[in-house]
Amino acid sequence: MNEVHGTRPGGGAPWDCGDVREWLPDHVAGRLDAEARSGVEAHLSACVSCAEELELVRLLHAGRPRVPEELPDRILEAVRGEAVRRPRASARRPWWGLSAAAVAAIALGIGIASDDSTSIPSSPPETLASEFEEGEFWVSDDGLLAGAPSLEGLSDEALMELLEELNTEGPGGSA
Amino acid sequence: MNDERRLDDDVPDAALVERARSGDAAAQSVLVRRHHGAAFGVALSMTRDRDTAQDVVQDAFVKAFGALDGFRGDAAFKTWLLSITANEARGALRRTKRRRETALDDAAPVAAGGPDPAEAAVTSREAARAREMLERLPEKQRLSVSLRIDEGLSFREIGEVIGSSEGAARVNYFHGIRRLRELME
Known about the structure:
Chain A is mostly helical. Chain A contains 7 helices and no strands. In chain B, helix 3 (25-47) crosses helix 5 (77-96) and helix 5 (77-96) packs parallel to helix 8 (155-162).
């Protein structure tokens, strides 16, 4: 559990569909405190559409993939193997006498190493989206957002309008 | 092991990262056990193959621990790790030329990824169907939905992982949910 939400976003007004739908994953996973849970449940008892969405979120949560039990040990074995290997690798010198790091830097500089999956961001990459999905649809293919070149290019106001549209035009409408 | 058990309870990631920087095996172990599941979820969501996903997660942790000196700490370790995992998965997809969207029409549900046993008796069939429908969503919608529901990440954190703004992550999530509701009808 990453977060425990306690208060309704925006103050003490009654929970609306937007709030509830945003927090359904936390509700299903038991991450809400008693006050928030009570607010969500009160809304769900009166809103068919949000109750239907709750069922979907429940199903998705119940069907989440099982993580292989052996994976942590496998990772640690690889990490420790790498830690053992690393000093040896750095101690070796290529035949022309440069360090491995220098060779890598030269390779990068002349574009030999082109697979950027090897790069490590010092913070989450901001360009991952455009690099990975350029030309692909990552808005709906149902035409609702047709013509939107990229969500990244939209202002906060435009994003809020889209959210509003999603909230009001979702299956079954909203309460 | 005793050190690891003491560390696992309350020590925040930032402190573990500091210890892991100097090669503290116990700290590394806790970080792995704490976050391998989320990393596996990202890798599986992107590669659709459990074996490939395990390779991706293993490589991501090796790279992350090898690059801790460059980790600035302005993001959480978890989101940083998940962004590395996403990069690794992207590399794996490139190498195998198995782009997910090319197989949307005949997409199979993720193999052997069933629900927990206690839940399986009641909802396994519908849950499996929901996950199968999830596999049909575009990449960013799929990741936004799975990171929000499976891992409880906030939209800000999801944005950090998938390389988008918080608002875009939110829109991708809600659009994915809306599409899933249509597919499940």
